[in-house]
Amino acid sequence: MEAAKSALEDLGSWRRTHYSTDLSPGSDGEEVILFGIVASVRRQGAISFLILSDCKGLIQIVIDPKVGQDIAQKARRLRRYSFIGIKGRARAMDKAPRGVEVAPTELKILAIPSKDPPFDMFGRRVPSLEKRLDIRAVDMRRPQVKALFKIRDSVVRGIRAFLCERGFMEVNTPKLISSATEGGSALFPILYYDKEAFLAQSPQLYKEQLVGSFERVYEIGPIFRAERFSTDRHLSESTSVDVEMAYVDYNDAMDLLEELIKYVVRRSSEECGEEFKLIGVEPMALNGAFERLSYGEIFEDLRERGVPISWGDDLSAAQIRSALEGRGGFFFVKDWPTRSKAFYIKPKRDDPKICEGFDLFFGSMEIASGGTRVDSGELLRSRLIESGLNPISFKYHLDVFDYGMPPHAGFGMGLERLLMVITRRENIREVAFFPRDPSRLVP
Ligand code: ATP
Ligand code: MG
């Protein structure tokens, strides 16, 4: 062990000149410095063939003892999963992956693992998700998992680009809060100095407060929910894409959400062709408008077909599936019963039993919820009371409304839920870096 450690070298003055994917047959003769993990070692006589994996892809490295005894000796010590740097020349090679390989004249061994991961990092057999999550950082060195997170990154950058172009300002709202944002989902209590506080379940009220000055805001941030779920579509800590805008209503919010999803789906499929191949998925093509059904239509349809439901109930995944009769894809359900939605969703002026709220579904999975918001302080107070909440706990919020608020609407979308759809993963944990659920708080 000590001998192995002492053989390790420092980075020194070496700096990467290329990623593996920057090289092609046209790079023949170029001087390069590459870094990465040894994905495989194969020896043919005195020659060592390595596959080097960096964050972008794989490249073949050929170490020939004719270059020097020093490098040949080091190469013999190399084992799989070591971190190395190499300096040498690229050369075109038909038989190598991507038609190019590198013949190094110098090699630095930067780290030699003291143990092997509990699964083959570069193999085809997929270990169980639980086993992978136990050592998630190493799991994320697997090319297929890296591909998922590159798609995630492309989607997040797409959301930012789209909203920035539409004049939205990115904001940050507090995650340490003194009271619930709304009834319903359970909060994680924490100790805030000597007082009880909570982790925020949604930026809802703060993003509404911000439209009073900035008019168009969005936040991509964590939300915390202490529900004791046991599903494959919930996390205790997930990422919410929250959008709020002034002087519009829920129809505009649905339009924006639909355009946003179409934009990021298209952009990620253009940017991540290789990554979709790696995860074995054909990128989605979204043609046509998302259907907009009303709660009333779904309710009548379910009742006619004898599905038990009483007006005002939330729609379960099973009910949605039944109402859809095999229709897939994205669709909105709008005009929900006022009592089924949070107090801040605006009841319709001509029929206050129904509110201007909507959910976006993909199949039977909810992707986003939104609506026109209540903008009158007086109505907000009475909606709080009707929803069984205490207006005193919301004084900090109601105070703002006393100074007047513009009409506004928006939505909150689950980033990981959208990623499940785009990458066709059945389990939300696949698309979260370090997922948290009722039975997992590490790593
Ligand atoms: P669900 O009924 O699916 O639990 P919700 O209606 O409680 O969701 P909202 O409060 O409407 O969720 O939150 C907005 C969006 O955030 C949801 O549509 C969903 O995409 C996402 N989301 C909410 N809770 C979670 C969670 N625990 N894990 C992952 N995503 C979530
Ligand atoms: Mg919802």
If you had to describe this structure to a student in words, what would you say it looks like?
With 443 residues, the protein is α+β, with helices and mostly antiparallel strands. It contains 13 helices and 16 strands. The chain has helices at residues 2-6, 69-77, 129-134, 136-139, 143-165, 204-214, 250-271, 273-278, 295-304, 317-324, 377-386, 395-402, 415-423; strands at residues 31-44, 47-53, 58-63, 83-92, 100-111, 169-170, 176-177, 189-192, 195-199, 216-224, 237-246, 291-294, 330-334, 357-362, 365-372, 408-414. The longest helix has 23 residues, at 143-165. The protein is elongated and about 85 Å long. The protein starts with a helix and ends in a 20-residue tail after the last helix. The chain binds adenosine-5'-triphosphate and magnesium ion (MG). Adenosine-5'-triphosphate binds at residues 185, 202, 225, 234-235, 238, 240, 366-369, 412-414, 416-417.
List keywords for this structure.
alpha+beta; 443 residues; 30% helix; 5-stranded mixed beta barrel; BirA Bifunctional Protein, domain 2; single chain; OB fold (Dihydrolipoamide Acetyltransferase, E2P); 8-stranded mixed beta sheet; 13 helices; elongated; binds adenosine-5'-triphosphate; 2 domains
